[in-house]
Write a structure and sequence with these properties.
single chain, 286 residues, alpha/beta, 8 strands
Length: 286
């Protein structure tokens, strides 16, 4: 799939999902975003850029920490997501936030204008993330920092799902996906450099960073039920899979997933899945 077509697909998917993104009785992006902010530690007065800000799971906690003397800019390629983030900032009374529609792979922003760049489950999904990281480094002041999250990729798992789902999604369903979206090809083209920490560190050094720190931590993904999780999966990255499945296959997959997820519940309690997340921080090498 060509880069422009890929970006249009992603933009359309998240425009459609914006009003329900990271809602619907499931928590994952919000606790992950908070933890990224904790690990990076924005300081009062910092100028922060959040790349692929979504509804503000990382942007808003960072904005609170930098205080009224700081400024946080959130950018996202999906206009509807930017509007949702703006509403959420207003709802929470966070006033030092600016939102813009912008391609995070080619941000049209002045050089050396930020102290901190963030990207939770966003930067690493850019079509050429390694080249984009060099552009992000150019946006940082001397000594500026970057922090982002990534799935813990392996070549035999779907790139936007916790590992347990690889066993629940029949490989036959891959025939309904465009070839460029097959997990093995995506891993080879986009994510192979993220699998091993040494390769990831080398990519960051090549992009102009130093003092790279990589830590894997589980983030609890909780859902009130299996049905709630499947409904929520239509609002995030897995939406791109659902869109390509014929009605019968989609219904069968839904039943399979709901049954497996509800089996994890303790009575009427929630579904809870420990999702491995990779936290990466670095400092620009100047």
């Amino acid at each position: 799939m060509e880069t422009a077509a890929y970006k249009m697909k992603v933009t359309d998917a998240f425009n459609e999902a914006a009003s329900t993104y990271d809602r619907m009785g499931v928590e994952f992006f919000t606790p992950m975003g908070r933890r990224l902010v904790e690990r990076v530690g924005p300081r009062p007065g910092d100028r922060v850029l959040d790349i692929g800000c979504g509804r503000g799971a990382t942007l808003l906690p960072a904005a609170r920490l930098i205080g009224p003397t700081g400024h946080a800019l959130g950018i996202d390629i999906a206009p509807a997501m930017v509007e949702e983030a703006r509403r959420e900032a207003d709802r929470q009374g966070v006033g030092n936030v600016e939102l813009r529609v912008m391609d995070g792979e080619h941000p049209d922003l002045p050089a050396r204008s930020f102290d901190l760049a963030l990207g939770s489950y966003s930067v690493i999904f850019l079509p050429d993330a390694r080249a984009a990281l060099a552009r992000h480094a150019a946006l940082l002041t001397d000594g500026g920092r970057i922090g982002f999250t990534s799935p813990v990729f392996t070549r035999d798992t779907f790139p936007f799902l916790p590992p347990m789902f690889t066993e629940l999604i029949p490989l036959s369903l891959l025939g309904h996906l465009p070839e460029s979206w097959h997990p093995e090809r995506l891993h080879r083209q986009l994510h192979s450099w993220l699998e091993h920490p040494a390769d990831l560190e080398a990519a960051l050094v090549q992009a102009g960073f130093t003092d790279v720190e990589i830590a894997d931590e589980p983030v609890p993904m909780t859902a009130v039920s299996g049905d709630a999780w499947v409904d929520w999966s239509h609002t995030q990255g897995m939406r791109l899979l659902w869109q390509h499945l014929p009605e019968a296959e989609a219904a069968a997959l839904r039943t399979r997933l709901v049954t497996a997820l509800d089996a994890l519940r303790d009575g009427d309690g929630p579904v809870s899945i420990a999702v491995p997340v990779r936290y990466v921080t670095a400092r620009v090498a100047r």
